[in-house]
Design a protein that fits this description.
InterPro entries: A2M/Complement_sys (IPR050473), A2M_TED (IPR041813), Alpha-macroglob_thiol-ester_cl (IPR047565), Alpha-macroglobulin_TED (IPR011626), Ig-like_fold (IPR013783), Ig_E-set (IPR014756), Macroglobln_a2 (IPR001599), MacrogloblnA2_CS (IPR019742). It is a single chain. The protein is α+β, with helices and mostly antiparallel strands. It folds into 4 domains: 149 residues, Sandwich (Immunoglobulin-like); 110 residues, Sandwich (Immunoglobulin-like), CATH 2.60.40.10; 105 residues, Jelly Rolls, CATH 2.60.120.1540; 299 residues, Alpha/alpha barrel (Glycosyltransferase). Helices cover 21% and strands 37% of the residues. The strands form 10 sheets. Strands 10, 11, 12, 13, 18, 19, 20, 21 and 22 form a 9-stranded mixed beta sheet that branches. Strands 16, 17, 24, 26, 28, 30 and 31 form a 7-stranded mixed beta sheet that branches. A hairpin with a 2-residue loop joins strand 35 and strand 36. Helix 7 packs antiparallel against helix 8, helix 9 packs parallel to helix 11 and helix 11 runs parallel beside helix 13. The longest helix is centred in the middle third of the chain and has 20 residues.
Length: 840
């Protein structure tokens, strides 16, 4: 019978272990039309004990169920009592046991009633199959007495999935993609024969032609096998038995068979133990491939031949070429024009119950997936496999994104023209062009939430830079009523992890540094960053008040007498500070941390006033635009009378071009750094602070040109070039997007491209899909896109493209100069390597 659980009734009659001790074991459930077993044992007595066992029940029908027996249990032995349960009904059941002689006790326990159920049993006609063989399944529906059900038909569902990687004498087979269901098989096997052909003229004239193989064993071409082979259902019939035959897939692996049955009278029946079906053959090959390779590089294709027969074999291994790659020579000779070979073959000796490997060197010539077909033949057996190998373009990938924000609030139509600047020296075949549109300013960022919400890790600085985006996402989605439970749960989890992780970088004085107590002192910038961020996170997770208070106290204690906040610690990655490394910028940044902790403003009023006075005294004639943007925002938060003057001063530094506005640091004319042509992080950061100042002054309309410039600097994923500009940029855009999201967009976008703009397409932005980033691929030869938008609201259109460049002069330059020493020979190679970092 099926024991779902064990009921234990036991006790010691006295505190002395030598005294009588009893144990009653029985199932926790009772089923109709079954046997109920009770096991009773007694120790610590010298004579037999008499025990009374009773199973009673108050049935839902009002009737009383009762079965009782008296048993005699010999000392230090176990007695099994079998109670026959007839056709009974649900109710409240109780098992009672009482000692009548030899031992005195009384115990009772409630028993659960479970309606009798059915189970499924699966048999196969053998244990091991070869690929392509027929397997016979026999499915038997068992009732609660483990007998075939013959009452009425049941619907049976059989599911068969791969058992996962299985080790076969050192070889790992199986798919790395996990377990999935409801995926059909690839179909019947493909017989792979190598045909012969006469010599041809042209490039094929000197290719080696394979000999006839009609007299050799037929081999089956093994494709990649999906993880679910069989998912079928059938009726068991009135005898409770069914047989079906299926062909096993062409893979060396094990499959797990499971099934369940559905019956009108008895409900659901499950298989008690899945059955494993093993597919195996004594001679097979395996190809070891990397995930991807670069076009033009030499790749070693390793093929392993396995021989599980009881005699040694010599196998001929053949690698077939469909013209997608060249075979490479393992020599120092260089051939200007490689010849096209249809195949190469090698012979390998394979010991019995062992495996041997052979390698082929190839040079991929086509991009995308190429076919790797390998065949091995011996006098006794053969095997063949086919795999796909991904070939990527050579060179470094350059990612470009041109975004335009079309404002249709006061116009019925808006137009934009986008040019796609792909240089002539781009690697052929590496170009990708796409157009996308969304009705939300943060649409690309929302679409990329999987990367925005990241697990915090790294040092004290890196941890915080992964911590803050979680707060930005939560704030924006919550304020725009778009926050889902899934996103909230993940973000809250990561905030908790990031908070606990950051505490490991805390000093005993309340400050924070990149590596915690291993650093000589805390960092002013990082401590201010932590205090500000923890205050924002306190809305969503439990943050100890003393952590924020002690950080602010440490900052206050380290304030200079003139009111500034000098950097007293060391920051390992200064790029993460943006421009807030010293002077006014760092003072303003630290002041913002105090002002955003409103509950602490009164306590640290003197500290705040000294910092504000220092900023006001030193702003006259300030030429550092980055520091000016931070100071203007800080004075706005402080509501200082000089805030208007600071804002006007910042406004005078703005750069305008048509409908765009931004702030930028001048680029040295003699600087050859090519990265200055890219969106600069410091420009994005200071423009973001300027945008926050606009929003604090309720200048939403005036902020639109600033937002348009920021949107143009973003990458395809919705972020910026580095970490600090992404954190501040997203905060500023999210604040403005909250104001713009109140107006639902309804826009139809038409785009044209190609010669004479003869080709094109359209996308619709509505209220129900405004945050969905719609993407369309464009032909790789596209170099111009005309965009027309009609309707009402805002719409963001992006033309994203990428291409590869062969790097001839990297900047900055990392050099590696290996030199062969004189004492090297044909068997021993000794190198002297000199490396250097060049930044000019």
């Amino acid at each position: 019978m099926e024991w779902l659980g064990i009921l234990l009734l036991s006790g010691i009659i006295s505190n002395v272990i030598a005294e009588p001790y009893y144990t009653i074991i029985a199932p926790k459930v009772v089923r109709p039309d079954s046997e109920y077993h009770v096991a009773a044992s007694v120790t610590g007595v010298s004579t037999p004990s008499t025990i009374y066992v009773e199973l009673t029940g108050e049935l839902d029908t009002g009737k009383i169920f009762n079965i009782s027996r008296t048993i005699v249990v010999e000392p230090y032995s176990t007695h099994i009592l079998r109670l026959n349960i007839g056709e009974t009904t649900p109710g409240k059941y109780k098992l009672t046991a009482r000692g009548l002689s030899g031992i005195d006790f009384y115990k009772s326990k409630d028993i659960e009633y479970v309606h009798k159920s059915y189970s499924v049993f699966i048999q196969t006609d053998r244990a091991i199959y070869k690929p392509g063989h027929k397997v016979m399944f026999r499915c038997i529906i068992l009732d609660s007495r483990l007998r075939p059900s013959i009452m009425r038909p049941s619907d049976v569902y059989v599911i068969n999935w791969i058992a996962g990687p299985e080790i076969l004498e050192g070889r790992i087979t199986g798919s790395p993609h996990g377990v999935s269901t409801l995926r059909p098989d690839l179909g019947p096997p493909v017989t792979h024969r190598l045909a012969t052909r006469p010599p041809l003229a042209g490039p094929y004239a000197f290719s080696r032609i394979p000999p006839p193989v009609w007299n050799k064993p037929r081999v089956f071409l093994m494709h990649d096998i999906l993880n679910t082979w069989l998912f079928t259902n059938f009726s068991s019939g009135y005898n409770g038995k069914t047989e079906l035959r299926r062909e096993v897939p062409h893979s060396i692996t094990s499959w797990v068979l499971t099934a369940f049955s559905v019956n009108d009278a008895h409900g659901l029946g499950l298989i008690e133990e899945p059955r494993k079906l093993k597919v195996f053959k004594p001679f097979f090959i395996s190809v070891d491939l990397p995930y991807s390779v670069i076009r033009g590089e030499i790749v070693s294709i390793q093929i392993v031949v396995f021989n599980y027969m009881n005699k040694d074999l010599t196998a001929e291994v053949l690698l077939t070429n469909d013209g997608q790659f060249d075979f490479a020579e393992v020599s120092n000779e260089v051939h200007d024009v490689p010849k096209l070979e249809l195949y190469r073959r090698k012979k390998v000796d394979v010991k019995a119950n062992s495996g041997s490997s052979v390698s082929f060197m190839i040079i991929p010539r086509e991009l995308g997936y190429i076919n790797i077909k390998a065949t091995a033949n011996s006098v006794l057996a053969g095997d063949s496999v086919e795999h796909k190998l991904l070939v990527n373009a050579e060179g470094e990938t350059q990612y470009k994104n041109k975004a335009v924000l079309l404002d249709l609030r006061n116009a019925e139509q808006a137009n934009a023209n986008v040019t796609i600047d792909i240089p002539n020296n781009a690697v052929p075949g590496s170009e990708i062009v796409q157009i996308s549109a969304v009705g939300d300013v943060l649409g690309p960022s929302i679409q990329n939430l999987a990367n925005l919400i990241k697990m915090p890790f790294g040092c004290g600085e890196q941890n915080m830079l992964n911590f803050v985006p979680n707060i930005v996402v939560l704030n924006y989605l919550k304020n725009t009523n778009q926050l889902t439970q899934a996103v909230q749960s993940k973000a809250l989890k990561y905030l908790d992890i990031g908070y606990q992780q950051e505490l490991t970088y805390r000093h005993t004085d309340g400050s924070f540094s990149a590596f915690g107590m291993s650093d000589p002192s805390g960092s002013t910038w990082l401590t201010a960053f932590v205090a500000k961020s923890f205050k924002q996170a306190a809305e969503y997770i439990a943050i100890e008040d003393r952590i924020i208070t002690e950080a602010l106290q440490w900052l206050s204690n380290n304030q200079a007498s003139n009111g500034s906040f000098p950097e007293v610690g060391k920051v390992s990655h200064r790029d993460m500070q943006g421009g807030a490394a010293k002077g006014l910028a760092l003072t303003a940044y630290t002041l913002i941390a105090f002002l955003e902790n409103e509950e602490s403003v009164g306590k640290y009023r003197n500290t705040i006033n000294k910092a504000v006075d220092y900023i006001v005294r030193n702003m006259e004639g300030l030429n550092d635009t980055y520091a000016l943007s931070l100071c203007a925002y800080a004075l706005n938060l402080a509501k200082h009378p000089y805030e208007t003057s600071a804002f006007n001063f910042l406004e005078s530094k703005a750069v305008t071009n048509q409908d765009l506005k931004w702030w930028s640091k001048p680029i040295p004319k003699d600087n050859k750094n090519p990265h200055y042509s890219l969106p600069r992080s410091v420009d994005v950061e200071m423009t973001s602070y300027a945008l926050l100042s606009y929003l604090k002054r309720n200048l939403v309309t005036d902020a639109i040109p600033v937002m348009k410039w920021l949107v143009k600097q973003r990458n395809t994923e919705g972020g910026f070039a580095s970490t600090q500009d992404t954190v501040i940029g997203l905060q500023a855009l999210a604040k403005l997007a909250e104001n713009l999201s109140k107006n639902t967009s309804s826009v139809e976008i038409t785009y044209k491209y190609g010669e004479g703009e003869g080709q094109g397409g359209y996308m619709n932005i509505r209220g129900d899909n405004s945050i969905i980033l719609q993407k369309k691929m464009l032909p790789t030869k596209t170099r111009y896109v005309n965009i027309t938008a009609k309707g009402k609201g805002f719409v963001l259109v992006q033309v994203s493209y990428q291409y590869n460049l062969n790097v001839t002069g990297a900047f900055p330059l990392f050099t590696l100069d290996p030199q062969v020493d004189k004492n090297s020979n044909a068997n021993h190679l000794q190198l002297s390597i000199c490396s250097g970092y060049v930044f000019v």
